[in-house]
User: What shape does this take?
Amino acid sequence: MTEPAASPAAFEARLRRIGAERYHDLHPFHHRLHGGGCTPDQVRAWVINRYYYQHSIPMKDAAFMSRVEDPALRRAWRSRIEDHDGTDTNEGGIRRWLRLAEAVGLDPDYVASCEGVLPATRFAVDAYVRFVREKTLLEAVAASLTELFAPAIHARRIEGLLRNYAFANDAALSYFRQRLNEAPKDVAFGLQWVLDHADTDEKQDAAAKALIFKTDVLWAQLDALESAYVLPARIPPGGWVPGEGLLSRARAS
Assistant: This one.
């Protein structure tokens, strides 16, 4: 016999507890980054590896949309791809991230090549894309609900980077400022869709587990950075080695 679902309010509170307990804003690497405790090379390693996640998000969303039969859901979702890939009037999040790469002294072509991405980063991000491609639509949308917690970390990141790092300025941090504008509409739609469709106890459990999976994906990326670039550093084969992929003096000037 199927157990009755919790009320939407109770289920939303359950989802928000997951973020409070498991979101990657709790990770020591983020505390160090936002507090000015990262070396320039640790910041560069974060930019390189986080780019792999950023560039994979539109592919994740395209995989999701390829399975959606409801035109209304496709219309609502496709703005996520445009937000990252850009349009004629919006350069997009990927281009903004590459501007951040330039600001920290990295060649954006090197970053865009995805060379030097840590193996664990690849495994985690690729697992997320595969999850969205293979799981139910409810689980796929629920996994995106880490967006519930993203605006707060973006705001802290802007404040911390501006206060602690010479490279930080409005141009370099434009990705995060733009996400403060874009994320709320995605959050509102995705959360309501999950609350509407998780109408049994079993579905609510599946959605909650999907969100936990996504928090694990984000946490694993920071664990990889911590292991590879924070003393005692252990850069795995194929990982970015400080000094590689830097802007030439001529280009930097």
Summary: The chain is about 70% helix and 0% strand.
